[in-house]
């Protein structure tokens, strides 16, 4: 079983990758922007290829290296910034990294996905305003405004709020991509297409762009003090992510949103924003234009 994965060097993805690499029938290919960041335990058992999701050319080169069939694609890498920044191609960096590059990988790898392959994109409960996560909720999934926030008349004046809303919006895009792929690829009924909300998982590297005291709190203190149904830990959510890609009970989902609840993934209804079919179709088409593909 050949599994291709992003975001395996740290946090939730690292935990998932360690479990996948230990499975006797799994051949794991990891895309990483710093291959040196791949833990030795993983580097010994996986193929590591260069991949910088902030650069669409790098995503293309990564996809070119991959021979099929691919049995599972796990798009787990993600960043959260404290201000809007730009990708190599000039798109807002969070949107480009978390959404556009994974969208491009999905599109480029679709032809080499095995008939019964699984796709899992790591999304987040922050995509859903009703979850009241404390993050600024997405207002829309308009690719043009997310890629060029200066064109959005409702843009946030505070860089911090803008950075965090960009993150929540990118996670909405991950979920909508999965839902839209399930609609568009009716001719590929064997594919399982899933989005995964790992819960709130303090202790990972996700807050690394924050000022040092906040990043330290997220990494070291919050895991000790935060509890609740929606709170998880990297080993638990990592194990769930590995299971979504491999375990028989998750093998037949078309556009399913798995969300951690009390340490297990449940099939949760996506937000009403995520269920907006016209918006998802537009996101798909506009993203295709941005990455240089036909819709
Ligand atoms: N932690 C949470 O509370 C939480 C909640 C909901 C969803 N999530 C999602 O879970 C996923 C994993 O996050 P995490 O919390 O485990 O954070 P993490 O420890 O920071 O892991 C992020 C991963 O993404 C990779 N990455 C970032 N930018 C990249 C780029 N330009 N090119 C290639 N790889 C890149 C990182 O690689 P490097 O080693 O090169 O940095 C790392 O492997 C993300 O999609 C995140 O949005 C997390």
Offer a concise description of the structure:
The chain is of the alpha/beta class. The chain is built from nine helices and eight strands.
Topology:
Layout: E1 2-6, H1 11-21, E2 27-32, H2 40-43, E3 46-50, H3 56-65, E4 70-75, H4 93-109, E5 113-122, H5 143-147, H6 159-184, E6 192-197, H7 212-225, H8 234-246, E7 254-261, E8 264-267, H9 277-291
Parallel strand pairs: 1-2, 1-4, 2-3, 4-5, 5-6, 6-7
Antiparallel strand pairs: 7-8
Helix pairs in contact: 1-8, 3-4, 4-6, 4-9, 6-9
Bound molecules: NADP nicotinamide-adenine-dinucleotide phosphate (NAP).
NADP nicotinamide-adenine-dinucleotide phosphate (NAP) is lined by residues 6-13, 32-34, 37, 51-54, 76-79, 97, 122, 124, 198, 200-201, 204-206.
Specify the oligomeric state. single chain
Count every beta strand, where a strand is a DSSP E run of 2 or more residues: 8
- The percent of residues in helical segments reads 25-40%
Strand content: 15-25%
Give the structural class: alpha/beta
User: What is the highest CATH level, the class?
Assistant: Alpha Beta
The CATH superfamily is: NAD(P)-binding Rossmann-like Domain
User: What's the architecture in CATH terms?
Assistant: 3-Layer(aba) Sandwich
Radius of gyration computed on alpha carbons: 17 Å
Low-confidence stretches: none
Distance between the termini: 29 Å
Describe the structure in your own words.
- The protein is 39% helix and 17% strand.
- The longest helix has 26 residues.
- 50% of the residues are buried.
- With 295 residues, it is an alpha/beta fold.
- The chain has an 8-stranded mixed beta sheet, with helices on both faces.
- The two termini are 29 Å apart.
- The protein is globular and about 50 Å long.
- Strand 2, helix 2 and strand 3 form a beta-alpha-beta unit.
- The protein has one domain: Rossmann fold.
- The structure holds NADP nicotinamide-adenine-dinucleotide phosphate.
């Amino acid at each position: 079983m050949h599994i291709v994965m992003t975001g395996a060097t740290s946090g939730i993805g690292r935990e998932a990758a360690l479990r996948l690499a230990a499975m006797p029938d799994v051949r794991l290919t990891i895309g990483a922007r710093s291959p040196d960041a791949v833990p030795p335990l993983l580097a010994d058992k996986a193929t590591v290829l260069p991949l910088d999701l902030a650069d669409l050319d790098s995503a293309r080169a990564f996809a070119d290296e991959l021979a099929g069939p691919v049995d599972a694609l796990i798009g787990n890498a993600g960043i959260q910034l404290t201000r809007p920044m730009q990708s190599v191609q000039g798109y807002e960096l969070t949107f480009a990294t978390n959404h556009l590059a994974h969208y491009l990988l999905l599109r480029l790898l679709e032809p080499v996905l095995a008939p019964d392959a699984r796709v899992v994109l790591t999304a987040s409960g922050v995509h859903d305003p009703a979850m009241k996560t404390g993050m600024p909720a997405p207002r829309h999934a308009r690719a043009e405004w997310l890629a060029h926030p200066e064109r959005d008349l409702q843009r946030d004046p505070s860089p911090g709020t803008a950075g965090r809303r960009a993150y929540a919006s990118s996670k909405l895009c991950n979920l909508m991509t999965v839902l839209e792929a399930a609609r568009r690829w009716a001719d590929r009924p064997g594919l399982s297409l899933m989005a995964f909300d790992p819960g709130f998982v303090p202790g990972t590297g996700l807050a690394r762009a924050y000022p040092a005291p906040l990043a330290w709190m997220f990494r070291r203190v919050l895991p000790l003090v935060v509890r609740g149904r929606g709170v998880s830990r990297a080993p638990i959510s990592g194990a769930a992510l590995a299971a979504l890609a491999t375990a028989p009970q998750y093998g037949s989902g078309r556009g399913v949103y798995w969300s951690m609840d009390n340490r297990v993934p449940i099939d949760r209804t996506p937000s009403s924003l995520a269920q907006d079919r016209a918006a998802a179709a537009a996101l798909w088409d506009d993203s295709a234009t941005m990455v240089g593909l036909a819709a």
